[in-house]
Amino acid sequence: RPALSLDPMAGLMLEEVPLARIAAAHGTPVWAYSAATLRRRAGMLKAALFNAGLDASIHFATKANPSLAVVNLLAGEGLGADVVSEGELHAALAAGVPASGIVFSGVGKTRGEMRRALEEDILQLNIESAEEAAILSEVAVSMGRRARCALRVNPDVDARTHAKITTGLTENKFGVPIAMAPDLYARMCAMPGLEPVGIAVHIGSQITQGVASYAAAYQRLGDLVRELRAAGHPVLRVDCGGGLGISYRDETPASPEALAGAIRAGLGGLDVRIMLEPGRWICGPAGVLLAAVVIEKQSSDRRFVILDAAMNELLRPAMYDAWHGILPVAAAAFHAPVSPADVVGPVCESSDTFARDRALPALPPESLVAFLDAGAYGASMSSTYNARPLAAEVMVDGARFALIRERQDHAALLRGQRLPDWTG
Ligand code: LLP
């Protein structure tokens, strides 16, 4: 994690900024993202696709981190956006992503969302069922438009990831079975409100078992492209989805070069524009969640480190048993003796546990810890459970840092609520 380093005086640093300075300026819990890491990773992906000779565009999956500053920075690097709700579409546009770089994915787009997407004239909507195709066509016709769309197919390949984030098996709700795709694509081409432009796939997230499942999916897509074209249908684009994993602990995910190779093997030479929808790979390693120790508690046989961050900030450990590195921030703590500790939050749920038996030094109240690789599906999955306001977010760039999201205050938690003023 090149953006993180240990300074013998200042302790843990993100780029050239001591994390302790960020906590002092903006309090805890607080998210901090490295701009250099975001830029570098966007650049690495672009280079891998380019070097594989692919005509490709990258659409950042904003669900991983919809922060305006993050999406704006990535837009500056030439990335578009993959959005899954009108809220994300609104945020992507507000962040400066051109409509022509926005893809709308998701199994349950409402008519209102379709309308907004068509009004904004985004690049394409990815259709996930025959039922949805019919509705999109109807909505587009009512607006006097034709909707550029791709058909998301479910290739029935096992991405070999956590069951809660695998999406490319027939048992999952996503896409249409690949065997049904030729017939549906033909019907879509005949619908008055649709302009089919290609096909899409996304087999899962945090894929770390090599590129074999990607390769299998892209082979099947390549066959499908040939079959559709043989039937006389236009196929201009293939959206290859996201899913490239990162190393939270000791996983060894495939490289962008290997992914690009799998795309080339399955789809190269077909004269299609390749699209990619990565989220986690770009922003996960760029972010940390900084928290302060509230208190350490010793029960009969366990040591508990209780933080001011909780499952409502970082949900991944509670939801997926996910592992995140946890480091102390103070320089001295790196030389102190360690003992196993359970790292927990203050929320009233036993699942509010970040880690069990983690080797950590003594952590007196108010000392800081950093959760690593928290830039993806961290802040974006936060809630206000236990009436805990959403945490602040900060971006670091070289020796500078800037607040990119204010900490919510308690008044904000009550905003929009009222005691009943009954009618009827
Ligand atoms: N495209 C589509 C259609 C998706 O559903 C997703 C993620 C992505 C792209 C981006 O996938 P990525 O490159 O980030 O793996 N909350 C979970 C991850 C859920 C992913 C959902 N879909 C987690 O924290 O692990």
Set down the secondary structure blueprint:
Blueprint lengths: L3 E4 L3 E4 L2 E2 H8 L3 E5 H17 L4 E6 L6 H9 L3 E4 L2 H9 L7 E3 L6 H10 L3 E4 L2 H13 L4 E8 L21 E2 L3 H10 L3 E7 L11 H19 L6 E3 L16 H12 L5 E4 L3 H4 L3 E12 L4 E5 L8 H5 L5 E3 L9 E7 L8 E9 L6 E4 L20 E6 L2 E6 L4 H5 L10
Parallel strand pairs: 4-20, 5-6, 5-13, 6-7, 7-8, 8-9, 9-10, 9-11, 11-12, 12-13, 15-17
Antiparallel strand pairs: 1-2, 2-3, 4-14, 14-15, 14-19, 16-19, 17-18, 20-21
The protein binds ligand LLP.
What labels would you give this structure?
single chain; 424 residues; alpha/beta; Lyase, Ornithine Decarboxylase, Chain A, domain 1; TIM Barrel; 2 domains; nine-stranded mixed β-sheet; eight-stranded parallel barrel; 12 helices; binds ligand LLP
Polypeptide structure, described:
With 424 residues, this protein is an alpha/beta fold. It is built from twelve helices and 21 strands. The radius of gyration is 23 Å and the shape is globular. The protein binds ligand LLP. Its EC number is 4.1.1.20. Pathway: Amino-acid biosynthesis; L-lysine biosynthesis via DAP pathway; L-lysine from DL-2,6-diaminopimelate: step 1/1. The active site is at residue 348. Pfam families: Orn_Arg_deC_N (PF02784).
Number of strands: 21
Q: Any idea how many domains?
A: 2
Distance between the termini: 60 Å
**Percent in strands:** 25-35%
Mean pLDDT: 96
Q: Please name the fourth-level CATH homologous superfamily of the largest domain.
A: Alanine racemase
* CATH fold title of the largest domain: TIM Barrel
